[in-house]
Amino acid sequence: MTASPTVAGGADLADVARSDASLRRFLHGLPGVDQVGADARAAALGTRSIKTTAKEFALDLAIRMVDLTTLEGADTAGKVRALASKAIRPDPTDPSCPPTAAVCVYPDMVATARETLGDSGVHVAAVATAFPSGRASLAIKLADTRDAVAAGADEIDMVIDRGAFLSGRYLQVFEEIVAVKEACGDAHLKVIFETGELQTYDNVRRASWLAMLAGGHFIKTSTGKVQPAATLPVTLVMLEAVRDFREATGQQVGVKPAGGIRTTKDAIKYLVMVNEVCGADWLDPDWFRFGASTLLNDLLMQRSKMRTGRYSGPDYVTLD
């Protein structure tokens, strides 16, 4: 019989969520994050340059990793249909341009996105569980999730209750993630931390392990509604967590930085970091995503520049 994986001084991962006390001991027993070191390493990785052929690969890979997102109160069915059409064929002038990974919308827009995307292979992601605050009863969160899945969502982006987490009610957060994952059925679950509210890198590491232990398929930085959103140092901490989790358990978990990633230069910095910290296994849309609304346009402009040798005008891409 194979023994359960252990980390943090011999803690048995099968036992850590049996009580608030054991989960707290485990999470607070994780190695602390050197904030100065994390900031310095992220800054150093952000200075790496890549050559032309590698940049061509990086541009197409980044496009394939985009969760093209609209999460506004003014969203309409027409806007979602246009966004979904753009996700399928981001550059209508170039059929070699790959599609994005997903379209991310509110649950009430899932059916519209699903109808437009059809069997294109582009996924429908829905933010659920009282996004962006996460402040609702579990019954409401589960109903929100089930409604989105029933409407055709392939992926659910849930938000944790940051108040519960920061109060040390880790088991409550763990059990909510487990319950939402069950409500997802076959849909994949991305767990959003809202790292701008977690205050410390140690908390980001704890939230990462908590979400992975509860069965999240992805861990995600932010809702995009709170600043700071995604940052390189925070993403570095999360990448280290998924790397260490796979080493301990054999299970691979994805990472999704979201909010504030607007330029090709930014996206390439993240891809370099993924490769350096986790390795090529994570350089795939199944394991790394960008949550973004404006990033795709810059990627398309840079891709066109590499193809034609000149920058296109501002009307080359749509304003989403």
From TrEMBL:
<dbReference type="GO" id="GO:0009264">
    <property type="term" value="P:deoxyribonucleotide catabolic process"/>
</dbReference>
<comment type="pathway">
    <text>Carbohydrate degradation; 2-deoxy-D-ribose 1-phosphate degradation; D-glyceraldehyde 3-phosphate and acetaldehyde from 2-deoxy-alpha-D-ribose 1-phosphate: step 2/2.</text>
</comment>
<dbReference type="GO" id="GO:0004139">
    <property type="term" value="F:deoxyribose-phosphate aldolase activity"/>
</dbReference>
<protein>
    <recommendedName>
        <fullName>Deoxyribose-phosphate aldolase</fullName>
        <ecNumber>4.1.2.4</ecNumber>
    </recommendedName>
</protein>
<keyword id="KW-0456">Lyase</keyword>
<dbReference type="Pfam" id="PF01791">
    <property type="entry name" value="DeoC"/>
</dbReference>
<dbReference type="GO" id="GO:0005737">
    <property type="term" value="C:cytoplasm"/>
</dbReference>
<comment type="similarity">
    <text>Belongs to the DeoC/FbaB aldolase family. DeoC type 2 subfamily.</text>
</comment>
<keyword id="KW-0704">Schiff base</keyword>
<dbReference type="InterPro" id="IPR002915">
    <property type="entry name" value="DeoC/FbaB/LacD_aldolase"/>
</dbReference>
<dbReference type="InterPro" id="IPR013785">
    <property type="entry name" value="Aldolase_TIM"/>
</dbReference>
<dbReference type="InterPro" id="IPR011343">
    <property type="entry name" value="DeoC"/>
</dbReference>
<dbReference type="GO" id="GO:0016052">
    <property type="term" value="P:carbohydrate catabolic process"/>
</dbReference>
